[in-house]
Automatic annotation (TrEMBL), chains A, B, C:
Protein's name according to its UniProt entry: UDP-3-O-acylglucosamine N-acyltransferase
EC number in record: 2.3.1.191
Record pathway: Bacterial outer membrane biogenesis; LPS lipid A biosynthesis
Transmembrane residue ranges: none
Lineage: Bacteria, Pseudomonadati, Pseudomonadota, Betaproteobacteria, Burkholderiales
Keyword Lipid biosynthesis: yes
GO molecular function: N-acyltransferase activity; UDP-3-O-[(3R)-3-hydroxyacyl]-glucosamine N-acyltransferase activity
Catalytic activity reported: a UDP-3-O-[(3R)-3-hydroxyacyl]-alpha-D-glucosamine + a (3R)-hydroxyacyl-[ACP] = a UDP-2-N,3-O-bis[(3R)-3-hydroxyacyl]-alpha-D-glucosamine + holo-[ACP] + H(+)
């Protein structure tokens, strides 16, 4: 992780440099706590005050902050500093993380009936079953399980310990983190005299390109048709996607979200951590759901939706919660008063 | 997955056939989007309108829809179409999924002190420790971990990457999906001058027959006695069952449910996704809990219980939530008004 | 698990014995259901009535219950019976669980560039990459993955199937249960014309001493700086800790808790099961959060905080929830009434 000259960064990522291209930085860091070797960024105007106090060697700023930045030292001016920062991290990671060569670890168990592309890396103790197809440049992490007939698109990277059950099709350039399970059975049972009769899940899972799925998240196979996740979807850790859910492109869900069966979620939505979406609902494009809210009805208009009991000191909460249980009666009492006071 | 004649299905699963037994179907699918090669089903009267519009080659219906179904083409008449459908999926899966032979993969590490039944399949890289007992026909998926002394009943199927820690006893014909952890330590600590002193968890986990547990779900070992899951219980993905919980037979819990320590849950209950049950509570048989509700007291009567803030457009939610924090005062104001207006 | 004399226990753990040291017990168990071979304990005064009815051979009690305990049989008197019980379980577990010898299973894949301390146990199919450092007495369970450069402190025990991604540093005497993932990428993306641009996560995870993390829980690596978990923190199962969270020493979180990015949580806090904490908030020391409450603002004073809709019979809930959606209007109606009735 040797340091780099600012001119190198500009060469790679563009932007307008204020100050000397010979200046060197050795880390990327937040404005607060930055020193002369740190390259930092001002993502939001609300952190503007930190621009004066930071010790960062160079700061990435929007054109509106050109003067303020120049007054304090080196800067990179770019229309969207946060996006520039994102690309900088990508370049930085590629530069500093050791390249991992293609090849098959001798302990990996790879079926002769699997089709393995060029430049594929299969790590220790991974299992690739018959009929699986791994596109060019795929990485299967240690202890990965790639079931029979599974298709993994080119450039997709599976962290250690990912399970792709038979019936899974993954697109290109996806990233799946450790502990992810794709294609386990959906939760389907028919009631039968007080017992549950299993509905075998005959569908699969179809995942688009550029999808990222966080650690220990699950996407179940469909009952009859496929569960579908479109291009560019991002799921955080410990997310549960039930059978036959359909998630539109570029939707993002934070940690611990649960989506019940056959829900149909639009494109460009965001779902806050711990939120839930009931089964068979439809969510329009550009819907945003607050953390830990439960969606109990279809949301057909874009917008921000919330539903969570406000947190309070416990004593206050207890009083309000107790009153809430009588809320309907309270409304009736107000009605009675209204009648009484109306001549 | 070659096609089948309807007469074959009737032979296997019963039901009354309307139309020709020579008709062939090659897939099972929902009414919507079905074509002439699709066998579909009408599970609820509310989908009745789809019966006329579907292109399905054959539809499974209840006797009440015999005429309507016959008017449009082939049909199978049976008292409970959804149950028939469930059994059809089972037969279909058995027919179309390649049989996986018994045997032990050479990379599996199986203790000589384990007792392995007939027809057991142990997949690649699995570990079976000393004293473990695998009944006849058990499958241990790839990367499975079967701890010392664990007992797995006949016909139970463990997907790849399941951990059964020492002290676990599983019944017959269970299905555990990828990433399940049974028998990790319960969360027990005694406070000691601001620190936590570990309470070693000396109990185990006892799971009955025909239990299914979803991907990445956890059932902790008991502190002193066992955590108990009775016959026919179905747990979805990412469910957390704490130490010494007792779940009655044929209870089902949807994804992301959490049950705290020593809760005692009855038989034939259902728990909606993301719901929580506090510790040491008692839940009667036939209790149904809505998604994301928190059970804070014992529920001793059967019935449906709910407790979740209704979702709304964020602006409306904000106003109502702010008022909610003053709800107790609002009640007092109503009381004052009542006093004032009472002569 | 042969039985032990009470005098042995007193010798090991202290306490004052009432009755004969020759009395033998063979199990530890709750007061209810205990028999003459059971050593039990009275942890809370509220279980006092069970002291008379229990059949336990010996009961651990506080000094206040000395007489009542002596009147019924053998007892161990100690200032904090629950803490005594915790230590008893530790001694009991050490005595009854078979010691697992140090050594490296032949199927483990251990880099020659890893540094392995004395008395380390590496179980079957584990993977230890280059530059990893395992302190003395560490256990890496079966199928464990220890990424390049990861540091694991002395005496730390990893259950089977734990992933420590590169950039993770674990302290001494930690316990990580099966399925834990430390150091997966935090959930960071910059919006870019309706798509998400990945922010590579360049930070790591720093975990102190005596930390315990439950099954299938996740702690993400930091975006730029580290995610930090201080000494003595206890996390239950299926907990999600996002990037750059900081958890103060001796804080405990129950199952299914989710903490969003950059939240800063104090020392000696407790968080109930399923609760959520939004990003960038500050929580003071000694804050206690009720189960399934969502923390939406910083909590700078110690105390107990709650926010959850009270559960009720569904019919009652429906009425109250419907009224709640009109709560703001209800308040306005009360205001109008107040105006009207004020001369």
């Amino acid at each position: 992780m040797s340091d780099v000259r600012l001119s190198q960064i500009i060469e790679e990522l563009g932007g307008e440099l204020l100050g000397s291209g010979e200046l060197r930085v050795s880390r990327i860091g937040p404005l607060e706590g930055a020193d002369a070797s740190t390259l930092s960024f001002l993502a939001h105007a609300r952190y503007q005050s930190q621009l004066q106090s930071t010790g960062a060697g160079c700061v990435i700023v929007a054109p509106a902050f050109r003067e303020a930045a120049a007054a304090r030292g080196a800067a990179i001016v770019t229309p969207d500093p946060y996006l520039y920062f994102a690309r900088l991290t990508q370049w930085w990671a590629a530069r500093t993380r050791p390249a991992r060569p293609a090849g098959r670890h001798p302990t990996a168990v790879v079926s002769e009936l699997a089709r393995i592309g060029d430049g594929v890396r299969i790590e220790a103790h991974a299992v690739v079953e018959e009929g699986a197809v791994l596109g060019d440049g795929v990485t299967v992490g240690a202890h990965g399980f790639i079931g029979a007939g599974v298709v993994v698109g080119a450039g997709t990277r599976l962290a250690p310990r990912v399970s792709l059950m038979p019936g899974t099709r993954l697109g290109e350039r996806c990233v799946l983190h450790s502990g992810v399970v794709i294609g386990a059975d959906g939760f389907g049972f028919a009631p039968n005299e007080g017992r549950w009769e299993k509905i075998e899940q005959l569908g699969g899972v179809s995942i688009g390109n550029d999808v990222e799925i966080g650690a220990n998240s699950c996407v179940d196979r469909g009952a009859l048709d496929d569960t579908v996740i479109e291009d560019g979807v991002k799921l955080d850790n410990l997310v549960q996607i039930a059978h036959n859910v359909h998630i539109g492109a570029h939707t993002a869900m934070a940690g611990c979200v649960g989506v019940a069966g056959s829900a149909r979620i639009g494109r460009h939505c965001t779902v806050g951590g711990g939120a839930g979406i009931l089964g068979h609902l439809t969510i329009a494009d550009h819907v945003h759901i607050s953390s830990m809210s439960l969606v109990t009805r279809s949301l057909l208009q874009p917008g921000l939706y919330s539903g969570v009991f406000p947190i309070d000191e416990n004593a206050a909460w207890e009083k309000n919660a107790a009153t809430l249980r009588q809320l309907h009666k309270l409304r009736e009492r107000v009605r009675a008063l209204e009648k009484k006071t109306t001549p």
